[in-house]
Design brief:
One of its GO terms (biological process) is regulation of translational fidelity. GO terms for molecular function: ATP binding; double-stranded RNA binding; L-threonylcarbamoyladenylate synthase; tRNA binding. It is found in: Cytoplasm. By secondary structure, this protein is of the alpha/beta class. It contains 11 helices and 15 strands.
Length: about 325
């Protein structure tokens, strides 16, 4: 594995790795991705193998621009074009009927494919230089905490990745919103970096969020839909701010190791012996630091992390979703 700063020469090294069937880690605005040439079935299979990801869990294909939609989608509906024009590059994945040229290895055997254009200069330069689609889930072991720095990728995957492009910390910090466009009316399958309010503003009508969690076994319609996911080693417990002291006292009574707290702001009157992580801030700030804080909990050896989620507005919906799934693990 080679970790490199994303100069033009190093991006070409990553392109060469992709073209030879290798795996690369690329920074995006959401999380770091584990990328393979989407047209190379053997390389894509290696993504599943390295992650430990079930082969019936589809991958998202990353594109250089919206013009490539026609190459990967069976057809481009007016709604798909509208959303692509409004939010790409950006943290929005469109689930559409796949083109016949898209391998079922990428889609987990499903007739649909998730497509997006990431909003990160390194990712975009890589995609333009490569010229094709890059199939890329998050660059971590399946079901665990997603990586938002190159160091996270290396800690999780090490030499299983041929080239790691270090583009700094991810700006958004949670995965892309996934919108299913294969139904009569768009449905959000995964909350993410684009809020439902922003989607509805562009569409001009209300849309639904698919709230039922997929079982832990069997294929998923889209990434990130399993009931238990995004989990640190520490047990995650959720509570409202007014319940913090009561919950911490209860957790301390049964915990087998140190207990930590993650909240949006500093709290007073906490029990002794609580490891208080740096406050996460606003919902947007919370999203940007969420995965790094969950990883910090493990580095500190916490047995339990009590989390006070942000309000469920804007990207706060995605943060609450990730915390609920982490707590279900």
């Amino acid at each position: 594995m080679t970790r490199v700063e994303p100069s033009a020469g190093e991006i070409e090294r990553a392109v060469a790795a992709l073209r030879s069937g290798g795996l690369i880690a690329l920074p995006t605005e959401t999380v770091y991705g584990l990328g393979a040439d989407a047209s190379n079935d053997d390389a894509v299979r290696r993504v599943f193998e390295v992650k430990g990801r079930p082969s019936d869990h589809p991958l998202i294909i990353h594109l250089a621009d919206a013009a490539q939609l026609e190459q990967w989608a069976a057809s481009v509906s007016p709604t798909a074009q509208l959303l692509a024009d409004a939010f790409w590059p950006g943290p929005l994945t469109l689930l559409v009927e796949r083109s016949s040229s898209v391998s079922p290895v990428v889609t987990g055997g499903r007739p649909t494919v998730g497509l997006r254009v990431p909003d990160h200069p390194v990712a975009l330069e890589l995609l333009r230089s490569f010229g094709g689609g890059i199939a890329a889930p998050s660059a971590n072991r399946f079901g665990r905490v997603s990586p938002t720095t190159a160091a996270h990728v290396i800690a999780d995957l090490g030499d299983d990745v041929d080239v790691v492009l270090d583009g700094g910390p991810c700006r958004v910090g949670v995965e892309s919103t996934i919108v299913d466009l294969t139904t009569d009316r768009p449905v959000v399958l995964r909350a993410g970096g684009v809020s439902v309010d922003r989607l509805e503003e562009v569409l001009g009508y209300s849309i639904d969020i698919y709230v039922s969690a997929e079982p832990s076994t069997g294929g998923a319609r889209a990434p990130g839909m399993l009931e238990a996911h995004y989990a640190p080693n520490a047990r995650v417990v959720l509570c409202a701010e007014h319940e913090v002291t009561e919950v911490l006292i209860k957790v301390l009574g049964s915990a087998t190791g140190p207990v930590g707290l993650l909240a949006g702001s500093a709290l007073v009157g906490l029990p002794e012996d609580i490891v208080e992580l740096e406050p996460a801030g606003t919902a947007d700030d919370y999203a940007a630091v969420l995965y790094s804080r969950l990883r910090q909990a493990d580095r500190l050896g916490l047995s339990v992390l009590v989390c006070v989620p942000p309000p469920e507005v804007g990207v706060g919906v995605a943060v609450n979703d990730r915390l609920r799934r982490a707590a279900a693990s």
